[in-house]
Please model this.
Amino acid sequence: MLTVVIVVHLMIVLALIGVVLLQKSEGGGLGMGGGGGGGFLSSRGTANVLTRTTAILALGFFITSLMLSVLAGVERKPRSIISPGSPVSAPVPGAPEPLAPAGGLLDTLRGGPPAPPAPAGTPPSEPQVPRSQ
Model:
């Protein structure tokens, strides 16, 4: 259903663009003349037909736009931003207490307590940052 409405909407948009471009300019904006079509679509009756066609296409554009927004809203299902397994505010009875961060920010981001310092005689397990002396 949604695909059909989108296709109809796009056809209306293209027809509306074409009809608007066919109309004769009346304002003379930007110093342009009144559309030099050499008499093409210049009669008064043709202007009324183009005006009515523009109005009908504009009405179709608004209706299909509303239909698209309603169809998009129907297919959307409300979701919670909170994951279903996470506690909301109160701790669950019997669950272990969360660990308080004992180290700095990096230890908190790693998700565990800080590692104990290595004894002085053992080589480091991680690369060390050079320090100025």
